[in-house]
What we know:
Elements: H1 17-21, H2 29-32, H3 40-47, H4 57-60, H5 66-83
Amino acid sequence: MTDIPWGPEHPHYDLTAEEFFNADPSANIAFWTRAPCWTIEEATALSFGFEPRVVNWASVGSYDHPFTKDYRERLDLARRAQKVGTSLM
């Protein structure tokens, strides 16, 4: 969450990623690059550079936060690509 898409007037503006997620959300790249496949949820979190075991729809879906909108939109695109048998990469 280094490129903050919301301004100082937003109530979560000053939160660090660790404060927002209540954990370090950084992806364990060494682990995930060895995984033979990723779920749509895992791929979505990883596309933001976040750890899927920390950042997922269950953990962010209920927040009133601009990241939630970004995550939902990217997850939707990934699900659509999966339905038609294509890749976003």
